[in-house]
Amino acid sequence: MPDVVVVGSANVDLVLPVQRIPRPGETVLAGAMTRGPGGKGANQAVASARAGARTAMVVALGDDDGGALLRDALDGVDLSLATTSKAPTGTAIITVEESGENSIVVAPGANGELTLSEDAVAAIGQAKIVLSQLEIPFATVRSAAGASAYFILNAAPAAELSDELLAEVDLLVVNETEAEAIAGPDRSALLKKVPAAIVTLGGEGAVILTRDADEIAVPGVPVEVVDTTAAGDTFCGVLAATLASGSATTASDLTNAVRRANVAASLSVQAAGAIPSVPHGDAIDARYAEVYL
After folding, report:
1. What is the 3-state secondary structure (H, E, C) of the chain?
2. Which of 14, 19, 87, 141 is deepest in the core (most CB within 10 A)?
3. How far is CA 280 from CA 40, 46, 47, 146, 289, in A?
4. Among candidates 264, 246, 242, 248, which has minimal Cα distance to 53?
5. pLDDT tens digit string along 109-134?
6. Using CA atoms, how far apart are residues 101 and 97, in angstroms rounded to an integer?
7. Predicted confidence band of residue 4 (pLDDT cuts 50, 70, 90)
8. What's the pTM value of the predicted model, to 2 decimals?
9. What is the number of alpha carbons within 13 Å of residue 116 lying toward its C-beta?
10. Are 45 and 57 in contact (CB under 8 A)?
C-alpha cells in the first residue's frame, strides 16, 4: 500500500512567457508557448514520489491527449486509483514574467468530476499521509479527510472553508493570502480551526504554528529564480513524503520536514515548468546537507 495518497487535480499547462503579467484590460505579447503536465495534485504527487515515498494518486483524467500526457508524466506514481472522465482533462493557462512570478487561470474539466471509489477510500484509510488541495470538489476533499488517519490540506486556491472540513484537517498548508481567507489577518487564529498549520512565505521560507509550541520560523534558501510555477506544490509533496517516513506528531518533526520541503522548493524555482521542475530525492538531500548539516 502507498505511504502517501494524493487526492487532487491534474492539468495540461499552457505556459506563456511574458515581460510582465498583464493588468486588467491590457494585452501583452508572449514568447513561444509551451505545453506540459501540471496541476496542483499531479505536481504534489510527483514531488512526493521523487522525494522517496510510495505514492498513489486519486485523480480524474479525460479520455484525450491531455490525459495521456499526464499519465506518462506521472511516472513513479501509482495510478491504479485514477479514473477516466467524459469531461476533458483540466487545463491551466500560465503567464510567467521575467522575474519568475506567475499568474494562473484553470479550467477544471475532469477535475470537477472527481469522486472517491470504494478502492480509493480503502487506500486513503491505510495510507500514512493523505494530501489534498482545492482544485477538486469540496465534497471530495471532505470525504478524503474523513477517511484518512492523517490529513494534510493545502488550501489552494484561496477559499473560505467550512468548520466541518477544517475539523478533519491535521495539518493545514497555506500561503499568506490563503491564511487570511481562512482566519483573517492574524495567522495565529488558524489554530482555532486546525491543530497545526504551515504558512509559506515564498523566498522567505515558512512558519510553523502548533498548539503546543511557539511559532517556529524556518528561513528560505536564497536562489536565483527562473520560474515559481509548482514551487508550493513541490513544498507540499516533499513535506508529505518526509512526514510519511517518520513522525508528524511534534514541532521538531514538522521543522525537519519543512526544512527539506524548503530545500526542494528552492531547487524547483531554478527550472522552468511544473512537473519538469520537481527535484529528485538525491538532489534534495545533497542540498539539504549543504544548508543544514
Report:
1. CCCEEEECCCEEEEEEEECCCCCCCCCCCECCCEEEEECHHHHHHHHHHHCCCCEEEECEEECCHHHHHHHHHCCCCECCCCEEECCCCEEEEEEEECCCCEEEEEECHHHHHCCCCHHHHHHHHHCCEEEECCCCCHHHHHHHHHHCCCEEEECCCCCCCCHHHHCCCCEEEEEHHHHHHHHCCCHHHHHHCCCEEEEECHHHEEEEEECCEEEEEEECCCCCCCCCCCHHHHHHHHHHHHHHCCCCCCHHHHHHHHHHHHHHHHHHCCCCCCHHHCCCHHHHHHHHHHHHC
2. 141
3. 18, 9, 8, 31, 15
4. 242
5. 999 999 999 999 999 999 999 999 99
6. 6
7. very high
8. 0.93
9. 25
10. yes
Q: Report, in angstroms and rounded to the nearest whole number, the Rg of the chain calculated over CA atoms.
A: 18
Closest-CA residue to 80 (of 119, 34, 36, 134): 119
C-alpha cell at 210: 502548533
Cell of 170: 491535521
